[in-house]
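so my prof wants the structure for this chain in the tokens format not the other one, which i didnt know existed until like an hour ago. anyway here's the sequence
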Amino acid sequence: MAGTPKYTDPWPEEWGNIRTLINAAMTAAWSRIAFMKLVARELVVGAVTGRRIILNPDDGELPEVRFVTGTGDYASIVAGGDGGSGLEILGLASGTGQRYALRVADEELHVLYVDAAGNEDLGGRLLLNTSEAYVGYWGNGSDDENYFQFAGDGKTRHIGKWDANTGGTYWGMLLGAVRLGAGFGGISISWGPTMATETIPIPALGDLASNPAGVGWIVNNRDNTGFDINWAGGNNTTTREVTYMAYRTG
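here's what i got, hopefully its the right format
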């Protein structure tokens, strides 16, 4: 007569298998945190106050990461900060809110100064795009602007002024003008400082008479401190003017 069959209880073994699977899943979740999705109106990394990183501060309109120093000032990276496109990086603001900004768009890179009120009129600036480049000091549209424009048509323009009758030892270019009364036959012009290397003048002699024909002039005694220019002929009873540009060589 056959006996009653006996079965081994598999539950302990199955439970062990389930625990193993759970542990493996948790380990994979922690090691693959890149797949985690966190949804929040604002996320703060670090202390609630003091030094911290804020993602999407104040539930802003544009995506932003803000780096707070703990003193109330902060630097930030804003997507779409440049007129709704591109990327804007704002440097750490001073105590008055002034800062520099870097803006990167599809076809433009812009480094500029921004004051506490958001004005962009003053400060050094670099602007690069596909048709031209600007570098220099941006003023408020009046007499204080001083920058170069390098245009895509091969032309270079300077907006600003140049110093006259003064210079520094390492300046690359000097400009000046000297006006003399009647009766002079020459003049010695000094750069002011002694230039670091050879400096070559390009002078011009002007005569304010209505008919200055017959005037001859020559440059001599040129060195790193200045040059002499002498002239003769013409009507020497009128005012003469010497203008010059000089450049320093290697």
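also thought this was worth mentioning. The radius of gyration is 37 Å.
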